[in-house]
Amino acid sequence: MKAIGFKRSLPITEKNSFIAFETEKPTPKGYDLLVKIWAISVNPVDFKVRQNAAKDMVLDTPKIIGWDAVGVVEAKGDKATKFKVGDHVYYAGDITRSGSNAEYQLVDERIVGHKPTNLSVPEAAAMPLTSLTAYEALFDRIRIDPEKDKGKSVLIIAGAGGVGSIAIQLAKKLCNLTVIATASREDSISWCNDLGADYVVNHYNLKEELEKIGHSQVNYILDFVDLDGYWELAADIIKPQGHIVSITGSSTPLDINLLKNKSVTFSWEFMYTRSMFNTEDIERQHEILNHIGQLLDEGILKTTLTTTLYGFTVENLKAAHEMQESGKTIGKTVILY
Questions:
Q1: Residue 33 φ/ψ region, left for φ over 0, alpha for ψ in the -120 to 50 degree band, beta for the rest
Q2: Which of 17, 29, 143, 334 is buried most, with the most CB atoms less than 10 Å from its CB?
Q3: Can you give the pTM of this predicted structure?
């Protein structure tokens, strides 16, 4: 089968930052599905792994990355019971295994959902990773109760990004929250408004912007861009007994004491935790993806696809990575095979 990977962590502009090669089609065992891939999407995690996985070395065999895919089940392992051969599926995969930048992939069925039937292949490919991340942040980390927490405020930092675009929709339509998103460019502000944000504020002077709209403090904060840069401000603007969730990590130790007097809760959200550690509730991701698919089919949520590149080629994968690295993309970029 054809795959695209890398042996060294090179700048995306370098000729061999990605290379196409042939490798053996894998055989499913246990809970695995063998999926013939129809489309993939590219996320920030893709370029971050590409930049760091082979920084000071040359790999013997190319590393295949990629963590969003839509395709059809071609075969399955002896323990796989949730899908049948021929089913159309979508998923975000497992960061510890070979990725979706290939013609075929093995994936544990417990982290796979049925593809939304009313969405095109590219529209569906845009959704898994960002939907799982946003959903887990709201319902598994903060544990939002749509009735009890109705009307509470959530600040979504980087509202126009892939995860922010789903979080806005979930927070508004499922959680009944007052949604405040950050954006600065005209097109990203418009995008957040169209997705249902109650307010869109400029992240360059966030504290003043929040005061201007009458929300100097908020119940919840979702950081989807830069925890280090926002940590002290987040501690300042979070309400007592509020909750902060971040997906971005920290390059330096956080001063958690800033949250003490307010009894604020802080949580990490890492979409790969369940698959990485084979947690007891790993099947939760199967359930979430099926729920997201239902919401998409009913029109409650809408796809965040903005760009489609045609053809599974090195050139298209490079282009998609360049777009992600710019930090200015809105919504999601998909490559249709």
A1: beta
A2: 334
A3: 0.96
